[in-house]
């Protein structure tokens, strides 16, 4: 029985993780979880999973009412609550938080000698250097949940890392893949939230439309697999059936395919190195018929190029990029700025940032604050 701690239990990945756990009650047991503001989900999960002993919510008031309702459970709140869960007793942490809020629990879990199944890509984008160091120090494993990285992870099984020539990350292109740059000036939040292939949380759906998400995934792959940026390529693939590929020195290319359903990479992260049945119709390639691939247009999607630039320069720049994006992404969703302004803000932040090393969590928090404040100032000017 694998005892699972789940942060972000009320989100898109969190809900699908619960679904995977429920499909294999003899193998997986939920022992603790965290949600943000959706206290109703916490209430339901506390009733549904008797083995849960720890639960965290974002707000103190929600925590107080849950304490009254569930006196035999430990109810926590705020950032400290997430950290307490990350440091508690379990076998694997599923980090399905969104944004930089996921970094501290990822690091706390590793530093308290736990393996992490990671959906929260922002952890690695910002603090890849710190997380990689902690993993080595504590002899722990980070298992990817992001579909592209799960695909690469699956293509690496049974092969040798030193014989990898190239990682090829596929990209659907998001909601606006067929729009010109001029058309992007007037797109709405509702249009941006309608992803053609995947149903995901709001932030990542916008990040997919700007292709910031694909840039993040390049950075994420760099830290997860220890492959230089020069050996990580992005390939447009609108059908989202080939989830990513690995090319080896002999030019053999391994690809992982499947329907666009996040439960597969979530389940694989929990069952690895085993595979388990999943109640999903089999992939029908005859029905898919034709799969398309093309090179990405980095002029059309400048944030993809920016992620490479920030990653290759290193230091605090990817953390600044993430923070500026987090603020700009939220402002677009709040109808405070137009879509294309997200790009302007994030590019401006990376180019104007005082470059510095990222050796300590202090460096990281400073970079995060700087990037967030830079973006907020630009947004204030506009409103
Ligand atoms: P959602 O927005 O759907 O869910 C985010 C979760 O995090 C919610 O449970 C939310 O709680 C919780 N949360 C957010 N902020 C806080 C906070 N400060 N304290 C406590 N809880 C918090 O996001 P997704 O599930 O889409 O994405 C999660 C992560 O996985 C992201 O990093 C994303 O990039 C990555 N990912 C997602 C994919 C997908 O298909 N969705 C695919 C690949 C990667 P609440 O809602 O209760 O406030
Ligand atoms: Mg992905």
Which bin fits the share of residues in helices?
Answer: 40-55%
Distance from N terminus to C terminus (CA atoms, Å) equals 53 Å
Number of helices: 17
Shape: globular
Written as H for each helix and E for each strand, in order along the chain, the element string is EHEHEHEHEHEHEHEHHHHEEEHHHHHH
Strand proportion:
5-15%
Strand order of the largest sheet: 4-3-2-1-5-6-7
Q: What is the subunit organization of this protein?
A: single chain
Number of strands: 11
Q: Identify the bound ligands.
A: NADPH dihydro-nicotinamide-adenine-dinucleotide phosphate, magnesium ion
Biggest beta sheet attributes: 7 strands, parallel
Radius of gyration: 20 Å
SSE class = alpha/beta
Mean pLDDT: 97
Q: How would you summarize this macromolecular structure in one to three sentences?
A:
The protein is of the alpha/beta class and 383 residues long. 49% of the residues lie in helices and 15% in strands.
């Amino acid at each position: 029985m694998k005892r699972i701690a789940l942060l972000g239990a009320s989100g898109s990945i969190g809900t699908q993780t619960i679904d995977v756990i429920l499909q294999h009650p003899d193998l997986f047991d939920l022992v603790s979880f965290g949600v943000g503001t959706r206290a109703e989900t916490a209430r339901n999960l506390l009733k549904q999973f008797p083995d849960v002993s720890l639960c965290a919510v974002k707000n103190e008031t929600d925590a107080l009412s849950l304490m009254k309702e569930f006196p035999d459970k430990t109810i926590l709140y705020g950032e400290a609550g997430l950290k307490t869960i990350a440091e508690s007793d379990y076998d694997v942490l599923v980090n399905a938080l969104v944004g930089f809020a996921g970094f501290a629990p990822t690091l706390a879990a590793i530093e308290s000698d736990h393996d992490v199944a990671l959906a929260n890509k922002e952890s690695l984008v910002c603090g890849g250097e710190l997380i990689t160091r902690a993993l080595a120090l504590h002899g722990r494993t980070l298992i990817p949940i992001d579909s592209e990285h799960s695909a690469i992870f699956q293509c690496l099984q049974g092969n040798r890392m030193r014989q990898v020539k190239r990682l090829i990350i596929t990209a659907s292109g998001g909601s606006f893949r067929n729009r010109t740059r001029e058309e992007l000036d007037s797109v709405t939040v509702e249009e941006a939230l309608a992803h053609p292939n995947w149903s995901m949380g709001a932030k990542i759906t916008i990040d997919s439309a700007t292709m910031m998400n694909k840039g993040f995934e390049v950075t994420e792959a760099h830290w997860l697999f220890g492959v230089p940026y020069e050996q990580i390529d992005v390939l447009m693939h609108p059908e989202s059936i080939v989830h990513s590929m690995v090319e080896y020195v002999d030019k053999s290319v391994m690809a992982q395919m499947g329907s666009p359903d996040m439960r597969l990479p979530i389940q694989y992260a929990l069952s690895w190195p085993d595979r388990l049945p999943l109640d999903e119709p089999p992939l029908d390639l005859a029905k898919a018929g034709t799969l398309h691939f093309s090179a990405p247009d980095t002029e059309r999607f400048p944030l993809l190029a920016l992620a490479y630039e920030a990653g290759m320069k290193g230091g605090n720049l990817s953390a600044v990029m993430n923070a500026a994006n987090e603020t700009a992404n939220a402002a677009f969703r709040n109808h405070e700025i137009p879509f294309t302004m997200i790009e302007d803000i994030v590019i401006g932040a990376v180019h104007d940032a005082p470059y510095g090393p990222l050796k300590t969590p202090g460096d990281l928090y400073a970079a995060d604050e700087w990037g967030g404040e830079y973006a907020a100032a630009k947004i204030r000017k506009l409103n």
